[in-house]
Amino acid sequence: MTAIEILGLEKTYKVGFWRKRPKRALHPLHLTVEEGEIFGFLGPNGAGKTTTLKLLMGLVFPTAGTARLLGRDWTDPEVKAQIGFLPEQPYFYDYLTAHELLNYYGQLSGVPGKDRKRRIDEVLERVGLTDVKGVQLRKFSKGMLQRAGIAQAILHDPKLVFFDEPMSGLDPMGRREVRDLMEQLKHEGKTVFFSTHILSDAEALCDRVAIIHHGKLRGVGAVADLTSSVQGKVELIWQGTQVPPSMKTLGAECHVTGDTVRAVLAENQQDAAIDALRRERMRLIAITPVRTSLEEYFIEKLQQAETSIGSTA
Amino acid sequence: MSARIVHIASNTFREAVRDRVLYNLIAFALLLSGAAILVGQISIDIKRLVVINLGLTAVSLFGVVIAIFIGIGLVSKEIEKRTLYTVLSRPVRRWEFIIGKFFGLAGTLVVNTFFMAIGVFAALLYVSHKFARPDALVLVALYFIILQFLIICALALLFSSFSSPLLSAVFAFSLFVIGSFAEDLRGFAGMARGPTRWLASAAAYLVPNFSAFNVITSIAHEQPVAGQLVLHNTLYALFYAAMALSGAVLIFEHRDLK
Description:
A: 35% helix; B: mainly alpha
């Protein structure tokens, strides 16, 4: 089943104080996310990621278009009982304790009283806030607030979770924990849609990603597909610090790092290079095809977007 | 009433309590104690008059200030701090949020007024040494004050749904002042001619008529309040608050939370 179906959602804001002029934040967006996927929504700051999420959450109204979440109209309030949302840089009622905050959100989400206490304890444990559950949020650090935000998003056991920049404000340990949590959610059958501009997170986690820039969708696909465009090159790594002389004639670019050498050369020269290493009695460690990284793909798409804007201007 | 409205209202009340809004009761208690001790020095006949006048006026003013300064931030603060995002992304309708906020603030003011009322009666007891039958009329004045608060809360919420806190405060306070002189405005409209008459009449009937709620002086002079006025003021306050809340809901239902 399709978890998210965005059918031409677009948003134009009116800006300016006196003579209002239109500013398009999101061009018509068509996107589908399947149930059980971890989907990364990538783009630089100001690309339209948060606008898309706000449209899906009903926080802003679209200029045109519609969407379906979990097979139902996205404006249906009851569908929201199945959805969790973590806004970017969340700010909560700071006069509440973490436990009180979750209790309030549990009440609003319709979690029955007897289940609520158990669920609150479970999610506090899951995000590592059990020890501070009685502390008012005004005393929380940025990272702790982010954890509280994640806790409120998954409190009511939603089928579909939206995270807007979930790693923001977290230290490396915290980022790792959030990545693990997202993977756990996937294993539990949940659909996770998260926006980020940290590509390594997306590459490590996502089944599919979409790239958005200047409010337009620039590319969408499985991470493996986007990064599998072999450029006809292979990478060889061997032990040692010496480079056989024949490597240069094969056109290999060699870099010595510590006690290993990394060489990138044309795929059709691979066998000759291996023979050269054998002749020199060098120990081959790895041969891998060179792939476009998600970062390279991302930069390429952004550059294409800039070029198309430049040519239309 | 929807359970979500009750939860939003109780959270609003909790916010007011934790933000030490009820600390105003200390200032009120000090003011009233000081006044009671001071009037102890003057003629016995006017002690009661002074305590009722001063006490009820203070109840009204303290409440109006709280209603305006909390009310104007009820929606705009939630948008500015983005606390609303995690509320409205749940199965909470926008109108439920507005109504919940209204009841939360109204509840805060009722509790605040209850404690202040205890203070007024304590001061009365201090200066008169016993309660007399006309003292029960103070309860009517307090009821009218609460009705006024309902209107002010709804108006503050209405302004908060589309304007900045500063402008909302200016609008709400201006309406309170103009509304307190609504009878004079109606009198002026009756005397005016031409377009001025139309404008003055429209303004007089549009602004809340707070002067009809002010029975403090007549109660201090032990004059009874007509049952018809109680009924009229009750219906008027409920109607006016409902209209203002409907306006707030209508605006908020279509507002983008940027």
